[in-house]
Amino acid sequence: MRKLFKNLTVCLAVLLSACSSQAINPTVYSYQYNDALANTEKMQKVLIASINFDKPSRYYLNKNSGRIDRQMTIYLENKGIKVRSSSTFDRYWKKMQREYGNLKDASTGKYTKKFKTALSKTMDKVFKGDPNLQYMIFTDLISTPVTYNHSATRMAQWHGVTRKLKVQGLGNGVKDDFDWSKSVDAISLSVYVFNRQQQLILHNIGGLQIAQALELHNNTGKFKRRKDLLRNEKEINEAIKLALHPLIQMKNYPLAFKSKQ
Predict the structure, then answer these.
(1) Parallel/antiparallel/unpaired status of strands 212-218 and 167-171
(2) CB atoms closer than 10 angstroms to residue 228
(3) What does the chain look like in DSSP terms, one character per residue?
(4) Tell me: the pLDDT tens digits for 131-141?
(5) If you placed Cys at 239, which of 81, 105, 106, 189 could pair as Cys (CB 3.0 to 4.6 Å)?
(6) What mean pLDDT is reported for the chain?
């Protein structure tokens, strides 16, 4: 009995040690991952598509998407993975747009019913044109409303990350009656990875950055679009690592449960 208790104690200690080495963030996204279809050992060549998979990003995010894709390219190439140019994808996609017409509904900001058919045909042509291409990756920039907590440091958590309040402008802070319950836009990187058969290998989301900063002026303040939007490479890299996990294992991937008090 004592031996059994000792073994259980050792196992518990190992488990607690493993958990303590990882951050706990209850907002981490419950990803979809098809381990049976993934071939991580031989992942050598991928393509990052130049369009969103789920729905178009808001304009202020979409104009920054190229920076995110370039940063992901660097991350993948540092892992020894070749990233193919999206020029072939772009060429076929333009042909699909001419064939099917406008694939985005301007009134709703969403894709039309013909979008999935056009995309499937484009993916098929791209994969057939390159027998060595293994995966196609879509990098959607999305936004989620969040609020800051009520601690002195003013933190926000979403999709596995924690970000401090960004302040810009000149001032001595805000008055006590400042409305901290007002929501701000939390930007995230939503990644979809498909194989040659257009089967979903991974869908995961990593938090990136709060779109607004607290702009100060004398003793007043208001949330306003930050001047350095999506320029923090450290935050971009964290979002990329989160969104590509577990296809590419992220060290210290955050745990998705709250610790008991």
Answers:
(1) parallel
(2) 10
(3) -HHHHHHHHHHHHHHHHHHHTS-B-TT----EE-TTT--GGG--EEEE-SS-SSSPPPHHHHTTHHHHHHHHHHHHHHTT-EEE-THHHHHHHHHHHHHH---EETTTTEE-TTHHHHHHHHHHHHHHH-TT--EEEEEEEEEEEE---SSTT-EEEETTEEEEPPEEEEES---TT--TTS-EEEEEEEEEEE-TT--EEEEEEEEEEESEEEEEEETEEEEEE-TTTT--HHHHHHHHHHHHTTTSPPTTPPBSSPPP-
(4) 999 999 999 99
(5) 189
(6) 89
CB atoms under 10 Å from CB of 139, counted, come to: 24
Q: Is the pLDDT of residue 85 over 50?
A: yes
Q: Nearest Cα to 122, choosing from 47, 37, 202?
A: 47
| CA torsion, ordered 111, 229, 155, 174, to nearest 10 deg | -120
Q: Cβ(209)–Cβ(174) under 8 Å? A: no
Token duo for residue 181: 């319950």
CA pair distance 141, 69, nearest whole angstrom: 11
Q: Which of 245, 247, 186 is nearest to 23 (CA)?
A: 245
**pTM exceeds 0.85:** yes
**pLDDT tens column, 12-41:** 444 444 444 567 889 999 999 999 999 766
Cβ atoms within 10 Å, residue 222: 15
Convert 86-146 into a string of H (helix), E (strand) and C (coil): CHHHHHHHHHHHHHHCCCEECCCCEECCCHHHHHHHHHHHHHHHCCCCCEEEEEEEEEEEE
